[in-house]
C-alpha cells in the first residue's frame, strides 16, 4: 500500500534521503529505526505531502502523493493517522473535542461523533477524561489522546513519529501495546523510533536507516548499528 | 454537510474567543481604542464642518444700485444671480427697507436721525445681499457683476472692501478641512495597523495549532474559518464597546465644546446619528478583524 521508489530528498545541498526503495503491505507493522537525522521524519513528511521528493516517487494505495494539488492534500491526510513525539494536541480544546475535531473536518455527522468518540477513548483507556484539557493530562495520557485522534476516522495507516520519545518506561510500553492492538485490528502501523529496546522486543519488520540510506530491511528484525 | 461545516466553523471561532479570554480581552482592548479614535475623528470632522459653515455663513457680498434704478431691473439682476450655481441665496433690500433697517439700527443716535429727517428724499440705495455656497466663490460672483451691461445701474459691489477678509476665510476654511482629512487619514491608518498587528500576534500564538489542524486533515477553509470568525467577533465586540464608550466621553466633553463653539452640539449629533455610528464602527471593526485574520493566517497555511 505504501511504495517508495528510488526516493531522494536534498535540503540545501544536504542529503536527507538517498535513493530509498521499500514497500509496506496492508496490515503490516513496520519499524523505521535509526539515529536522529537518519531520515525517518523525512519519510513521514514525504508521506503526508508536506515535502516534495527531490527525485523518485511515493505512492499510497497506488496514488502518486506528489501529484496531489496543495488544496486537495487534506483528503490524503484523512487516510492516515499521525502520532508525534510532542503529542500536538489542540491546547484550547478538551480531550473529547480534540478527538472529535478529526471527525468534524472529515464531515462526520454529530450523531456519529457522539457515538464514536467515547468508544475510541475507551479503547485507548481514557473513558473518564472526556472533558479534561491537554494541560491537565500526563504525557502518557496525552499520547493516548493523540492515538485516539489518529484512529477516529478509521485510517488505513497510522504513522507514529517517535511516539514514546517523551514518555517514561511504563508509559512507553503502554503505548507500544496499544499500537500492537490497533495493528491486530487491521490497521497498518509505521513506527519511527530510535529506541533500541522497543524495536528489539517487537519482533516485527525493521527498516534501519543511516545517513539517509536503508542499510537493513528484515522481518523479525533488530536494531543494530 | 456544508451547513454543518459552517456551523462548526462558527462554533469553533466563538469557543476560541471565549476560552482564550485573556488573549481576546487584550486584542479587543486595542481594537476598542482604535475604533474609539475613529469615532472621535468622525465627530472631529463634523465639528470642523460646523465651524467652516458657521464662518462662511457670516460673509456676504452686497451690490448697491444707483438710486434711480427701477425695482424691476434690480429684481431682474437678482433673478440672474439666483440662477448661478455658485450662489446660495440673494436677498433684495429695497430703498424703503434699507431706510427702515437704518433707522432701526440708529434709533438712539438723535443727531443722525435728525439729519436724516432733514433730507428731502431717501438717501439709501437699493441693494442685493449675496451669499455664496463657498467663500472661494465670491470672486467669481463679483467678476460676473463687473460685466458691461450692469455698468449703468450698479453703483458699487463691496467685494473689494471684503476681499481681504474673504480670502483669509477661504484659506482658513480650506486649511481646516485639509487638516481634518489628513489627521483622520493618518490616525485611521495607525489605528488599522495597530489592530492588524495585534491580530497578527494573536494568530502567531496559534501557529502550532494551525499546523496540527492541517495534519489531522482539515481543509484550508476549515482551518481558516474559525480564526476569521474570531477576528470578526473581535471587531464587532470592539465596535459596540467603542460606541458605548463614546457616550460618557461626550457627556463630559460636549457641553464644553458647545460653550466654545455655540451651535456645535456633538452629543445631539451622536444621539441623532446613533445607528449611523453603530454601523460605521461595527462595519469597520468587522472588516478590520476579518481581513486581518485572513491575511495573518495566510502565511501559516502556505508552509
Please summarize what this structure is:
The complex is a heterodimer of chains A (225) and B (303). Chain A has helices spanning 40-47, 73-77, 95-105, 110-123, 139-151, 169-184, 196-202, and strands at residues 2-11, 14-24, 29-33, 55-60, 63-64, 80-84, 157-161, 188-193, 205-210, 213-218. Chain A has 225 residues and is an alpha/beta fold.
Give a topology summary.
The complex is a heterodimer of chains A (225) and B (303).
Chain A: E1 2-11, E2 14-24, E3 29-33, H1 40-47, E4 55-60, E5 63-64, H2 73-77, E6 80-84, H3 95-105, H4 110-123, H5 139-151, E7 157-161, H6 169-184, E8 188-193, H7 196-202, E9 205-210, E10 213-218
Parallel strand pairs in A: 3-8, 3-9, 6-7, 7-8
Antiparallel strand pairs in A: 1-2, 1-4, 4-5, 9-10
Chain B: H1 2-19, H2 21-57, E1 61-65, H3 71-82, E2 87-93, H4 95-105, H5 110-118, E3 127-132, H6 138-145, E4 154-157, H7 159-204, H8 207-215, H9 220-260, H10 266-272, H11 274-302
Antiparallel strand pairs in B: 1-3, 1-4, 2-3
Helix pairs in contact in B: 1-9, 2-7, 2-9, 2-11, 7-11, 9-11
Please, could you describe this protein's structure?
The complex is a heterodimer of chains A (225) and B (303). By secondary structure, chain A is of the alpha/beta class. Chain A has one domain (2-218): Rossmann fold (3-Layer(aba) Sandwich). Chain A is 33% helix and 28% strand. Chain A is globular. With 303 residues, chain B is of the alpha+beta class. Helix content of chain B is 75%, strand content 7%. Chain B has a 4-stranded antiparallel beta sheet. In chain B, helix 1 crosses helix 9. The A-B interface holds A 48, 71, 74-75, 77-78, 82, 88-93, 101-102, 104-107, 109-110, 149, 153 and B 1, 4-5, 8, 15-16, 19-20, 208-209, 211-220, 222.
